[in-house]
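User: Hi! Is it possible to get a structure for several chains at once, not just one? Here's what I have:
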Amino acid sequence: MLDPLARDVKIGLTSQPKRLYSKYFYDARGDGLFQQIMALEEYYLTRAELEVFQTQKERLLQIIGGEETFQLVELGAGDGQKTKVLLEYFQQQNVDFSYCPVDISENVLQQLEKRMRAEIPDLTIKPLAGDYFDVLADLKFKNHSKTVAFFLGSNIGNFLADKVQQFLVSIHDNLRSGDYLMIGFDLKKDPKTILKAYNDSKGVTKAFNLNLLKRINNELGANFDLDKFQHNPVYDPQTGECRSYLVSTEEQEVTIAAIEKTVHFDAWEPIFMEVSKKYAPKEIEELAQATGFKVVENLYDSQKRFADSVWQ
Ligand code: AVI
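Assistant: Yes, the chains can be modeled jointly so their relative placement is included. Here is the combined structure:
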């Protein structure tokens, strides 16, 4: 049986149009490149969300209610650096909560736990490895305290339109009334600003995309020539979708040993790599309604580039 990467590469590169899945960007090198992206001036998202946390932490605590015990479940916690601002504040306010970062990767969680224990020694941290829905379902049945779930950093933007509702409905099914969900949405803005964030001048985002071809070379015995693919992000201000493509600059064949396939590329044929959708506040409202939630409040940065939307 094929492993998930091999299976998805086989499906994606034999489909028309061709596509790969951005969830596979994050091998060890991809993690490092994403850290570099977050530090780029042009990638405003990280700083905008950090500003929301720094300036709206008091308001957030008022909304979710700091008097009652809760478990703060962060779906896809990454390095947790932004969340740290909120965790430290909740601690200073003597809130009774435990922090449960959830990730599919044990390795990511171990690193996060180590860092958090060193940086916030009194924090109650309970890392949970596994699928988001399984973890939430488990908490719902085993634990009776309130859940505040976080899905931050515009990760929601990486879902295509047909999958995002399905994802949110599954989260809804695994929460109880009275629980909260806070989602980080990147907002529609000047298309030039958005495009620059995904086509940075140092070429880090280009390397981030090409790294998936490199990963396929290494892990599946393929022979992609990275110099023959061009990084091409496009932004559609109507749908809010920033889509990244790698475009084959010439007609070529690529062999992928692990799936026993030779894939033909026409000159200028694209591989669709990633969607990073931007939302208007009205669309956030509609998405919440369509998936059984209601928006309690949107917390914005001063330039309204980003919204952390609190739902119930
Ligand atoms: C992880 N995710 C929210 C990032 C984004 O903005 O869509 C991934 C990324 N892709 C290119 N740059 C950053």
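Residues 37, 45, 153-155, 157-158, 198, 205, 208, 274, 276 surround N,N-dimethyl-L-histidine (CB under 6 Å). The mean pLDDT is 95.

User: Great, thank you!
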